[in-house]
Specification:
The complex is a heterodimer of chains A (227) and B (393). By secondary structure, chain A is α/β, with parallel strands linked by helices. Helices cover 31% and strands 26% of the residues of chain A. Chain A is built from seven helices and ten strands. Chain B is an alpha+beta fold and 393 residues long. Chain B contains 13 helices and eleven strands. In chain B, helix 1 crosses helix 11, helix 2 packs antiparallel against helix 9 and helix 9 packs antiparallel against helix 11 (313-350). The chains are: A alpha/beta (227), B alpha+beta (393).
Chain lengths: 227, 393
C-alpha cells in the first residue's frame, strides 16, 4: 500500500454469532474499509446488527471470526488490557441515552474521559472547557446533567467523546432521543468535526441524519451492503 | 490511572447517595461501638478494681507467729523495729492474741443503770503503740497509748468501736473504767474505721506490758503495710528481719500479685460482649456487601461507560472496593467516637477514671475499613466481570 497512514478501520470477513439457542448470527462476513476523515452512516432496520457492528468496531465486543485492523493494528489477537488501552486512546463513543453521570457536573462528566489511561491531571479542566466550547456548552459548565435539555446533554456527551482526541468517533443513534431542532444542532456539530478531519461513524435509522454523511452503508440481517 | 483520580471517583460514588451510604455504615457503627465500649469499660473497670486491691490488700502483709511450746518467743516485741527499717515498709505493728484471751469477761463500771447488761465476753489483745496506723484505723475518741504507758505498764485500755458500743462506753469524760476479770483498767481511747484486722473493732486492746498479766506475753502476729509494689519483696524480707534464726517457722500471708487480679477481672467481663460486637460486625459486613451489590447493579451503565472510556477491569474493581472500604472506615470512625464517648460517660457515672487505649481508637477505623474491604470483594468482582457491551445495552 502506498499510504503512509493506514486506514482507520479495515474489517475483513467479520462474523459475530451469539451462542444462544438457536444461535444468532448478528454479523455475517462483514467487510468494511473506512479511511481517515470519512463520515459514514450505517442504516438498517431494528435488530439488523447495527449495534453489534458498532460494539465490534469500538472493541467492546470481539468478533467470532474474521479480522479487524484499527489504525493498522490487528485487534482480534490482542488481550483484554491492550484492547482497553487502545479503546481509551483511539475511540470516542456517543450513545443515544447520553450516559452522563447524574451526580457530577457537566465539566466533571467531560473530565471523566481522561481519568483512565495515563492522561496528566494538569490542565484537565482547561481541556474539558475547551471541548465544551467546541460543542457550544461553555455556559453550562457547572450544571448537573439533569438540568440540561436533551440536545445539550448530547453535546456534553460529544465533548466527553472528543476529550482524548480520538481517531474515531462512534455514534449509536446519537439523535434518537432528540427533536428535530436538537437533531439539527448535533448534525451541524458533526459536520464541523468532519471538516476538522475527524473520522465519524454514525448509526441511525433517520434519513435526515444519514443524508448528511458522505457515505452510506446498509446492514440487514447481519449482511453489509454499500449504497 | 492516577491514585488521586481513583480516590476522587470512589469518594464521589459514596457521596452521590449520601443517605444510603450513611445507612449502610450503621451495622459497622454498631459493631465497632460495641467492641470499643466492651474493651474500654473492661479496661476501665479492671483498672478500678485493681486500684481498690492496691489500696486494701495489695500492700498488706500479715506474719503469723506460731507458739513455741517450751521455748522462748520467736519474735520479740521490739523486733518490729527491724521490719520498719526495711525499704518499702510504711507501718508495722506487733500484737498478741491467744485463745484464752479471746473470751474474757469484760464489764463496764456502769453503776448508774443496774438493769443494763453491761457484761460482755470480748477478746483482749495486746498491741504496740503503732497499732492504729498498722491496722489503718483512726481514733474515734481519746488517744492510743504511747511508749510511756508501755514502759510504765499502766493499766490503760483502748476499746474497738464495736466493743465500746457493746459496753456502753460512749464518752471518755470522767475517765471510765472497764473490768477485765474483775480488775479495773482506765479507758483512754476508742479505735475505729479499721482498714484491716477487723477483729480489733470488737476487742479490748492493752499495752504489751499490761497484757503480760493476762497471758499475752508473746507476739502472735505482726501487721506490715508496704508501699505499692513492694509487697512481694517485703513478704520475703520481713520474716528474716523479725526472727533471723527461725524465720522459716513464721507464716507469711501476702496479697496476690495485682497482675493476676487484673487478668481475672477482664476475662470475666469481656467474653460475651466481644462475641456480641463481632456478630454486629459480621452483620455490618453483610449489610455493606448487600448494598454495594445493589449499587453495582444500579450502576451497570456507568460501569459500561467507564469501560468505554478506557477503564480496565481492575479499575472498576478498585473503585467499588474503595467505596465499600470508605463506608466501612466511616463506620469505624463513628463507632470509635461513639464508643469512647460512652466509655467516658459510663466512667463518669461510676466515678471511675476512664482508661482510654490509643491503640483502640486507631484500630477501630482500621477494623471498619477491613470489614468494608471484605464486604466489597464480591460486588467488586461482579462489577469487574461485566462485559462492556452488555453493560452498555
Ligand atoms: N448478547 C446477545 N445475545 C444474543 N443475541 C443478541 C445479543 N445482542 C444482540 N443480539 C441479537 O443480535 C441481533 C442484532 O442486535 P443489534 O443490537 O445489533 O441490533 P440493532 O441493529 O442495533 O437494532 P436496533 O436498531 O433495535 O438497536 C438481534 O437479533 C439481537 O436480538
Ligand atoms: Mg441498536
Amino acid at each position: 500500500m502506498p499510504d503512509v497512514m493506514p486506514d482507520v478501520i479495515v474489517l475483513d470477513a467479520v462474523s459475530r454469532v451469539f451462542p444462544t439457542d438457536p444461535p444468532v448470527r448478528a454479523l455475517r462476513d462483514v467487510g468494511l474499509r473506512i479511511r481517515r476523515g470519512d463520515y459514514v452512516a450505517i442504516v438498517g432496520p431494528s435488530g439488523s446488527g447495527k449495534s453489534t457492528l458498532l460494539n465490534t468496531l469500538g472493541l467492546l465486543d470481539r468478533p467470532t471470526s474474521g479480522s479487524y485492523l484499527l489504525n493498522g493494528i490487528e485487534t482480534t489477537a490482542l488481550g483484554d488490557g491492550a484492547r482497553t488501552r487502545l479503546r481509551g486512546r483511539e475511540i470516542g463513543f456517543v450513545y443515544q441515552s447520553f450516559h452522563l453521570l447524574p451526580h457530577r457536573t457537566v465539566a466533571e462528566n467531560v473530565m471523566l474521559a481522561e481519568v483512565y489511561g495515563g492522561h496528566p491531571r494538569r490542565h484537565r479542566r482547561r481541556r474539558a472547557l475547551e471541548a465544551l466550547e467546541l460543542v457550544g456548552m461553555s455556559h453550562r459548565v457547572d450544571f448537573p446533567p439533569g438540568r440540561l435539555s436533551g440536545g445539550e446533554r448530547q453535546r456534553v456527551a460529544i465533548a466527553r467523546a472528543l476529550m482524548g482526541e480520538p481517531a474515531l468517533l462512534l455514534c449509536d443513534e446519537p439523535t434518537g432521543n432528540l427533536d428535530s431542532g436538537n437533531t439539527e444542532a448535533v448534525l451541524d456539530l458533526f459536520d464541523g468535526l468532519h471538516a476538522r478531519g475527524l473520522t465519524l461513524l454514525v448509526i441511525t435509522h433517520e434519513d435526515e441524519v444519514s443524508a448528511r454523511a458522505g457515505r452510506r452503508v446498509r446492514i440487514s440481517d447481519g449482511v453489509l451492503t454499500e449504497e | 490511572m492516577d491514585i488521586r483520580d481513583l480516590w476522587a471517583e470512589a469518594l464521589a460514588g459514596v457521596l452521590a447517595r449520601p443517605v444510603r451510604s450513611a445507612l449502610t455504615t450503621l451495622g459497622t457503627v454498631l459493631g465497632i461501638t460495641t467492641l470499643v465500649i466492651t474493651l474500654g469499660v473492661a479496661a476501665t473497670a479492671g483498672n478500678q478494681i485493681v486500684g481498690r486491691f492496691d489500696e486494701l490488700t495489695a500492700t498488706a502483709i500479715t506474719v503469723e507467729v506460731p507458739a513455741r511450746p517450751g521455748g522462748g518467743p520467736l519474735v520479740g516485741w521490739d523486733s518490729s523495729a527491724e521490719v520498719r527499717r526495711l525499704r518499702g515498709v510504711t507501718s508495722v505493728s506487733a500484737l498478741a492474741q491467744t485463745e484464752e484471751s479471746s473470751n474474757l469477761r469484760v464489764t463496764a463500771n456502769d453503776l448508774v443503770d443496774p438493769t443494763r447488761v453491761t457484761g460482755q465476753t470480748l477478746a483482749v489483745v495486746a498491741g504496740d503503740p503503732e497499732l492504729p496506723r498498722a491496722a489503718r484505723g483512726r481514733m474515734v475518741e481519746g488517744r492510743f497509748f504511747d511508749a510511756g504507758h508501755v514502759r510504765r505498764g499502766d493499766r490503760v485500755v483502748v476499746l474497738g468501736d464495736q466493743a465500746a458500743r457493746m459496753l456502753g462506753v460512749t464518752r471518755l469524760t470522767g475517765a471510765p473504767a472497764v473490768f477485765i476479770e474483775d480488775r479495773a483498767y482506765t479507758v483512754i481511747g476508742v479505735l475505729g474505721g479499721l482498714g484491716r484486722e477487723q477483729v480489733l473493732s470488737t476487742a479490748v486492746i492493752v499495752p504489751p506490758t499490761t497484757g503480760a498479766g493476762l497471758g499475752l506475753r508473746n507476739v502472735t502476729r505482726v501487721l506490715v503495710n508496704t508501699s505499692l509494689g513492694a509487697a512481694d519483696l517485703i513478704a520475703r524480707q520481713a520474716p528474716v528481719a523479725l526472727s533471723p534464726n527461725h524465720h522459716d517457722e513464721l507464716q507469711v500471708i501476702s496479697p496476690p500479685t495485682p497482675k493476676r487480679a487484673r487478668d481475672g477481672v477482664q476475662d470475666d467481663v469481656n467474653g460475651l460482649f466481644l462475641i456480641l460486637g463481632l456478630v454486629s460486625l459480621v452483620v455490618g459486613a453483610v449489610g455493606i456487601a448487600n448494598v454495594t451489590l445493589v449499587t453495582v447493579m444500579e450502576r451497570v451503565s456507568e460501569i459500561g461507560l467507564r469501560r468505554s472510556l478506557g477503564a480496565a477491569r481492575r479499575h472498576i474493581a478498585a473503585q467499588f472496593l474503595l467505596e465499600s472500604t470508605l463506608i466501612g472506615m466511616t463506620g469505624g470512625v463513628i463507632g470509635a467516637g461513639a464508643g469512647l464517648v460512652s466509655v467516658v460517660a459510663v466512667s463518669a457515672a461510676q466515678r471511675w477514671t476512664p482508661v482510654l487505649d490509643a491503640r483502640l481508637a486507631l484500630a477501630a477505623p482500621v477494623a471498619g475499613a477491613l470489614v468494608g474491604l471484605l464486604a466489597g470483594l464480591y460486588p467488586a468482582l461482579r462489577a469487574a466481570r461485566m462485559e462492556p457491551a452488555d453493560a452498555l445495552r
